[in-house]
Structures are given as C-alpha cells and as structure tokens.
Amino acid sequence: MKGQSAAGGAGRGGSGTPGRRTLLGAAAAGAAALGVQATTPAAAAGAPAARRGHGGSYRDLPRPTVIAHRGASGYRPEHTIAAYQLALDMGAHVVEQDLVPTRDGHLVCRHENDITGTTDVADRPGFASRRTTKTVDGDRLTGWFTEDFTLAELKTLRTRERIPGVRPKNTLYDGRWTIPTFEEVLRWAEREGRRRGRPVWLHVETKHPTYFRGLGLGLEEPLARLLRRYGRDRRDAPVFLQSFEPGSIRRLAGLVSPPRVVLLGAAGTRPWDFVEAGDPRTVADLIRPDGLRWIASFAQGIGPTLDLVIPKDANGRLGEPTTLVRDAHRRGLLVHPYTLRNENAFLPADFRRDYGTAPVVAANEYGDVFGAYRRYFATGIDGIFTDHPDTGLLAAAEATG
Ligand code: G3P
Ligand code: CA
C-alpha cells in the first residue's frame, strides 16, 4: 500500500533519516523514512508440542502480547537471526518477519524488496549493474531489489542498520550477518522451541504480494509450503499471518489455517490490491462496522497503525482513543497495532523528552515511552509491535499489575 512504510516508521533505505542530534522536525522525516522464563534441560528434553510446531490457541498468549518488530530491531540490524534471537532472549512473546522473494523464488526476510539501505549491496562492484528504477505499489524507487538476485547472490551480502542516524550504536553490528531465509527462521524457531520447551511464536507478513504475483513470484504458495513442511499450517500453529493486502490474507486462508491479521495503514489509504482491482474502499471504510465484519469473515485480527487507535492532534500529541478496539472486539477480531519505539523520533509529541538538550530535542534519545504504553494499553489492545521488546514487556507487566 502506498504510504505503508511511512506508517511503519523507518522509511526506506535509511534515506532521509535524522542525524544523531537533530531537531525533531528532521526526525519526523526520518520516521517517515520481561517476564523471561528460565528454560530447564528437562523441559527442553520433553517438548513434543514445540517439536511439532503446535502453539495452542493464539487466544492463550499473554496479553498484551509483545511482538518484536523485525526482531529486537531497536538493538540489532533488523531482520537478522541475531535480532530475532535477542528478541526471544529478552522474552518477546512473538517475533515478526517480513517476507519478499528472490529471483529463484526463495522467501527471505526483509522489510522491502529494495535492499539498498539494509545491506552492503551498494558497495559491491559486481552488483553495480543491478541498480535500477522500479515502481512498487505506486512508488518510484531506485536501488537494488531482491527479485533481481538469486538466493546464492543475496547470501553474499551483509546486513546493516537501517537508521544509523537514530541508532548509531547498532552500526557496531553492520556487516556481521547475512539475510535470513524464512526457512532458516523456521529451523531456528524449531531449535529454540525444543531448547525452551515451548513453541516460538512468529508473526509473518507478506510484502507487496500483488506486485510479486505480477512478476510470477507469488508469495502465498511458497509460504504455505514452508509452513506445511515445518508443521505450522494448522489452526493451532504458533504463527500469525499478516498482510496489508486483504487479498493475500484471503488467499492464505485457502491454503493454510493459522490465525490471520489484516494490517491497516492510514485511514485515507487503500490496500494496493484494492487499487489494482478498482475496489474503491479505503482503510476508513474497512474500520467501519461493515468493513470489520467483512474482515472477520476471513481473518482473526487487525493490525492497525497506532494512529487509528489514538489519533494525534495537529501538534502531534495524543488525542482521545477511537472506538476501533471496541468495534473490532465486538466482531471477535484481536487488535495488534504497530509500532511503538523508545526513541523521541517516533513518539507522540507529548511523550518526547529533552533530558537537558533543549531547545534541540535529541531524536535518538529515549522519551517517556512507558507513558505512551500506558495510553495505548488502556484502550484494550491485545498486543503491540515494538522495536524494543524488553521495554514493551516491562510496560505490559505494569499494565497487567
Ligand atoms: O506488520 C506490522 C508492522 O510491521 C507493519 O509495518 O511497515 O514495519 O511492516 P511495517
Ligand atoms: Ca511488518
């Protein structure tokens, strides 16, 4: 969906990201750009559910559920096994993956197919000729794209911090890891599940599904095959399937049975599959009672941008909650909004803190994120995506008293 990456908060390729000590106005442009349980060996030894990939009902997950957005991406380059591992070690209830395909049809974990900002591809002379300009979901983009690389070629690249201006410390880890395939993640989850004696929950998003289907690289069928191969295709499998395109969720519903979540961007936007099909409905239509009833006919939840739960005023301060959480719950839909981050750059204006740096508020410093969590959790949301799962878990523990 046009504009979804802005809602996601990190923009693409790190372009336009704020410097380390920038005004929050610049940071806004960049933005557009515990309860840890010990695992005993005995528990790990007897873990049939984890081995078989059964997670029980998603309704039995702790609430609010803390979903590690792209892993613990506040601390490690996103969508690396290291980011996923840290999230799990911090105690995250669920770990998120975004999926895009390679030229030879493998699913890899990247927030977008443009890998310019999250890998070292621009520094590889051998791939210089692959730089190109494309239109993806209505956005004109220049860079390097996963669908132009085989998996073997992609595996020669190294991952990088997306927003070094906001997260300079994470650049310590630049160059250490490769892009994971989704199959590697499934194996990692299986291993970690056995070791911990309980399943590792995943939250898996199909990215740009209509665009990729047009290239002959449909995402849903290979995703379903992998879920079947690793025993995660059943209704009680420890995995959520999510997409900004309802059509992708409906297609998945015909292939496999895990719980499904329709992502919702800003109210005025339209899912890209609606744009392609000439369906005039906007997100504003989908969050009305009829729209939610329609979603509930093929999905178990919604993943709205936080602004649909509590809108901001003209000054960027939190206003009054909408009725979305109540309306969704009335139709049996759980609500997993995105994305709360610790840094001032991403917080509502009334939760930013200057820590003595006024009049310049440091974009990369942490604000009063616990205050923001209190406001969002008070709405009754079932879970939340966050780049900082350790903070989210503390806030969730506070909320549940
Ligand atoms: O999938 C939930 C959240 O991650 C949606 O935003 O753009 O970060 O994938 P994005
Ligand atoms: Ca996502």
TrEMBL record:
<dbReference type="InterPro" id="IPR030395">
    <property type="entry name" value="GP_PDE_dom"/>
</dbReference>
<keyword id="KW-0378">Hydrolase</keyword>
<comment type="similarity">
    <text>Belongs to the glycerophosphoryl diester phosphodiesterase family.</text>
</comment>
<feature type="region of interest" description="Disordered">
    <location>
        <begin position="1"/>
        <end position="22"/>
    </location>
</feature>
<keyword id="KW-0732">Signal</keyword>
<feature type="domain" description="GP-PDE">
    <location>
        <begin position="64"/>
        <end position="374"/>
    </location>
</feature>
<feature type="region of interest" description="Disordered">
    <location>
        <begin position="45"/>
        <end position="65"/>
    </location>
</feature>
<dbReference type="InterPro" id="IPR017946">
    <property type="entry name" value="PLC-like_Pdiesterase_TIM-brl"/>
</dbReference>
<feature type="compositionally biased region" description="Gly residues">
    <location>
        <begin position="1"/>
        <end position="17"/>
    </location>
</feature>
<dbReference type="InterPro" id="IPR006311">
    <property type="entry name" value="TAT_signal"/>
</dbReference>
<protein>
    <recommendedName>
        <fullName>glycerophosphodiester phosphodiesterase</fullName>
        <ecNumber>3.1.4.46</ecNumber>
    </recommendedName>
</protein>
<keyword id="KW-0319">Glycerol metabolism</keyword>
<dbReference type="Pfam" id="PF03009">
    <property type="entry name" value="GDPD"/>
</dbReference>
